[in-house]
Amino acid sequence: MMIRIFKLPALVATLFALVTVCVLQFPVVLSANAATSTPGLIQASGVGDPKWPAKCPDVIDTQQTEQAKIFGFKFDATGETFIRLADGTASATNIPANLIGCYADLDSLAGSGANGYHVGTISRDATGYYWLNAAGVKWGLTLSGSSFVTDKSNPYYSSGHTFAFITNPPLGISDPTLTHFNNLGLAATNALIDGPGYYVSAPIASPIPSSNKSGFGWYTSLFPIISSPVQGFQLGLSSTWIEPDVTSRTPGVAQQLCGEGSDPYIKKISSAPGSGTYGYDLFQTIEGSLGWWGGEKYPSTFPKYQPNVTQNCYQTQLATPGWGFYSSVATAKEQTGLIQLTNQLLLPPDGMTFQNDLTLPQLGTTWLALPLPTFDHKYGNMAGNNSWTLFMKTANFSGPVEFVAPQFWADGSLLNPVQKGLTQDVLNGSVGELSSEWNSIPYFEEKGSDGKTYSKLPPLQLPSDSNGNLTFSRDLFAYSKTALANQLENSLLNNTSIPTSTDTAGITPVMLRGSSSSVFQHGDAVPYLTKLLATSSLASGSAFGLTLPNASTVQQLSQYYVSENGVRTPVSEGSVPPGLSSTTFTPEGKPSFVYQAPDWWSASPTSSNTYSVQLNDGSSVDYKWYRFVDQPALQRFEMSDVEKANLQSAAEKIQKGWANTQLIKGPSTGSLASFDSGIMVTPPPGLEVGYVPIVIKQYFGPPTISATPSATPTPTTLPSAVASSTPSQSASPSPSPSATKSVLKNLLTCIKGKSIKKVSGVSPKCPSGYKIRK
Asked: For the whole model, what pTM was predicted?
């Protein structure tokens, strides 16, 4: 998740002194069981370094069966690496050891914020594996390939659920003279640990008119900031946070917004004394971006895109109709809320992939609050009419992708009535800046023979254009309801054609100004990086980015630094201790994780057999076609026949009217990125309109289905749509799908200038004016 901390510099130090991400201060509860009275006891509690504030709980195994051997694991919810301790000691094992044992986050235990959450045991009883930390908090573990998946007792479940096994010796263990840090290779403060990451930011130059807060759109440049994936690396390219536009903010209300059902960490920092109105920035947001994320299962050098809508203070986060933001576990039925609109794109749970392009192409992202037909009668029609809809623009796609069910936002007020009337379904949005979040940059340190401390960053690179600039984002626009929402509402109410263009009078440009803080590393200032990463407004304020030393080059950031008198300066590789120069950052291993749709999805009738396709990150996805209103994410709403008819009719009109339209204006300059052809799909015969391709599985390796199966439609009879007090329309007839004989089809990629079409069939041909791409 991307949590704003750069907006509150005075507050940041206070908050991080009080609490740290996933390092909550709970009383330490140690096991008091004696070895003679605890079945399956392997190691009694109390093992650990005397300097640690907490020691290992009991290590228990009542089953005594074969188990894997590892060096440790990485917890995706926190980014922390837990090292397996050698049995009976406080030292890391130097050989692979049994899963069952004691583990410690050695980095955090060395800092001032160390507590019982940083040491714990993996044990096993008759019910299976479980994790118990020295703070007395326990949750279940289920073995899944080379990882554990946690149960919902994990207090950080909404942020991550996976213990990914480390099967090679972690660096710093194979060479004990090295110290490895999981993050803060670039930091925004001089905190030694647990401080905020770094932000390359551009606040808006002047307030956005109140009439233009029904949508926001911008373009972001794509480029590979790393030359190969690095374990624990997390960096988001430029994006923003859209939050409810609460015009009157009071600390008393803000500190109650994250109450019952909230993420524990967010609840603590938002209600902390001195947190002011911070809670308004956290209880609901629309965010996500291009980037590299700690939760990615199939990491790639080129960035992926993943949206993220968050509700009830990050307790529930959604990125696709089936999964949360790089979540290891599919979204629970009662928490769904992102509804797929597009019939041209797949939405993989591990992120949307792009064609590799080193020319700084751009992705257009726009969120608009649209008045789609309501479908919340099950909840007493409590939600507002804002269906926040994601539009994306690339060289090979332009149109709506998915929307947030208004009830998703209203759900928070069911648990916490303080939120009522303040949620995204009833209020406009608010944006304060565009920002690139450099969340977790790992690094190494080693003390040299001269007594000085030297450090090493992963190899990072920044490309420049012909003017020497690296534009992070450009063309931020703010939309009023007159731009599109009002016309759509009228067309749905009157059953007329939906608008195919926006009213430009309802769209206003938003100017940006550069604003980046100083860069620190382990408490030391790094002037070289502060200067290099100083943000500037570009193109007369319509863009922001960096001005680099040389034009049309790829700037390699210095990897090595020496610490002297509180300042770190770049040095050559030959100047650092040999152990530091020879060490390398752990690459991501071959993934074994599998995203799998849950059993409850089977209650949704499908309209095809399973399709399978490979993406350019090395993974494959299996998917099925569903009639729009039958997609699993809509199950929990238990829609009436009239709600189904109205919503299905609106979806069909949108798919027909907004397919590859120019609703979203192209960038003022520069080229567009292209989606990976693997996520581009063509509806099978009979399912051209009114159906959506829903990903049911993602896994690493080639597709499991070699032939493209044909559609096997299961049409649903719906009543005609009826007019109501909310936007609705008469349902236009859906195509009557008919079963087709299963044949092996061929796929052509056809081009005409920048336009790309994919044509499938037994003997496919390119449309007139297009030619086959070789």
From this structure: 0.79
